[in-house]
Amino acid sequence: MKKIIHRCLALFSPHGLLAILVAACGYLFLHPVLMRTVDVLPQMHSFSTWKEALSVLGLLDIPQFVLGLGLILMAFGLLLRARTAWVFSLLLLLVTSAFNFLSPQGNPALSLGALALMLLLIGFWRQFDRASLAAGGLFALVSFVSLLLYAVMGALYLGEEFAPAIMDMPTAFYFAIVGMSTVGFGDIVPVTSTARLFTVSVIVMGITVFATSISAIIGPVIGGNLKRIVTGRISHVMRKNHFIIAGASPLALSVYHGLKARGEAVTVIVPPHIAHEYPPDTDLISGDPSNADELVKAGAAKAKYILALRDDDAENAFIVLAAKDVAGAGCKTISVVNASKNLQKIKRVQPDMVFSLQTLGSELLVRTLNGEPIDNKLITALFFGDITESKESE
Fold first, then answer.
1. What is the pLDDT averaged over residues 338-358?
2. Gene3D superfamilies, per this entry (predicted)?
């Protein structure tokens, strides 16, 4: 339920509103083509050739359909805040504006709207800073479908200018795939200058579309891995006099924000299967914090404190044990105790500091209700779990 609410609220963010506007622009551009297609469909049986049908429908309807559909698909990429979708949306809006302005049946208001939307996208360019595999897939899909429609419809319209002539949809589809893939079997040959230029355009655009589509899909994958490698190496070198937080519990998140607010350097270790709410810019390592290798990667040898703040007391004990093997001389270990019954067990692994939220909260509440004094010495004793010692000192 929370995810659904979060997604609904995202629609009212700048990138969400821009995505809605881009989709609306695509629909307005696509709507006249859909209406003309509905009007022509009942007459399709009366045409003897595809050229007659395309002439009635209008060759310009094909690119208009592709542009409108492309804008609608790119709106989904904009919702993901993908940079690829942002760039491709700008290009589609520019072509849409020019096409609509030059077309005899175009709407100048829609051209101006597309240009205004381009300016809004440029103004909010910082919103679209993610390399998304989904957006790359949309880019590849739109590019491939657009080129396929162009090749099939063009082949049907110029069918008589090929040897043998292209007179049906399966043959046009076959020629389009062969031309786009640059295979060129030679069984269908263009015999006029117009047909040859059309074939060359299909080949050139096929090479371009396949190359850019592959880069759009593979780029985010390679880029993300490279970024993680480079970021990990740089962080490993720069980690010094910092805090290491193991876990993603609410306490761990609160401690993280508190330390960052005071200007401290913090490295977080979270197991891969654990969901967390740390900010995107967190120096975060995905791994098992009870593994000595992960602590070494987090810079345990040069850390000031290692905090075991997981929800599982057994895991916290293992983290303290692993930390003692790899931590530097000046590094201190701190462990939280989630269940007060495990306090003595945690103490056996000898962390430098251990505290139980249950014990601390209950003791402070009881003393407040009874009107007993609370001083710094008491707070320190409670943090170290020495409740009996604090009582004896009174």
1. 82
2. 1.10.287.70, NAD(P)-binding Rossmann-like Domain
Name the helix (H) or strand (E) containing 323: helix 313-326
CA 104 to chain centre: 40
Question: What's the order of all strands across the beta sheet hosting 305-308?
Answer: 283-286, 266-270, 243-246, 305-308, 332-337, 353-356
Amino acid symbol at 254: S
Q: Tell me if 64 sits within 8 A of 111, measured CB to CB.
A: no
Mean pLDDT, range 237-249, rounded to an integer? 85
Beta strands (DSSP E) in 111-226 are 162-163, 189-190
Give bridge partners of residue 268 from the DSSP assignment: 245, 284
The mean pLDDT value for 179-183 works out to: 84
Q: Got the DSSP string for 196-237? A: HHHHHHHHHHHHHHHHHHHHHHHHHHHHHHHHHHHHHHHHHH
Phi, psi angles (nearest 5°) of residue 11: -65, -25
Residue 146 per-residue DSSP state: H
- Measure the CA–CA gap between 242 and 83, rounded to whole angstroms: 34
Query: Phi then psi for 298, rounded to 5 degrees?
Result: -80, 0
CA dihedral 266, 271, 275, 281 (to 10 degrees): 30
Cβ burial of 8 (10 Å; 0-12, 13-18, 19+) is exposed
The per-residue pLDDT for 233 is: 46
Q: 370 pLDDT band (50/70/90 cuts)? A: confident
Structural contact between residues 50 and 123, judged by C-beta atoms closer than 8 angstroms:
no
Beta strand spans in the chain (E): 162-163, 189-190, 243-246, 266-270, 283-286, 305-308, 332-337, 353-356
Residue 188 backbone dihedrals phi, psi, to 5 degrees: -125, 120
For the stretch 300-313, what's the b/e string if a residue is b when 16 or more beta carbons lie within 10 angstroms of its beta carbon?
beebebbbbbbeeb
Q: Find out whether 239 and 299 touch, Cβ atoms under 8 Å.
A: yes
Secondary structure letter of residue 366 according to DSSP: H
Q: What secondary structure letter does DSSP report for 374?
A: -
Domains of the chain, CATH where assigned = 1-130 (no CATH), 131-238 (1.10.287.70), 240-349 (3.40.50.720), 352-394 (no CATH)
Cα 50 from chain centre:
43
Q: State how far the Cα of 98 lies from the Cα of 29, in Å rounded to an integer.
A: 12
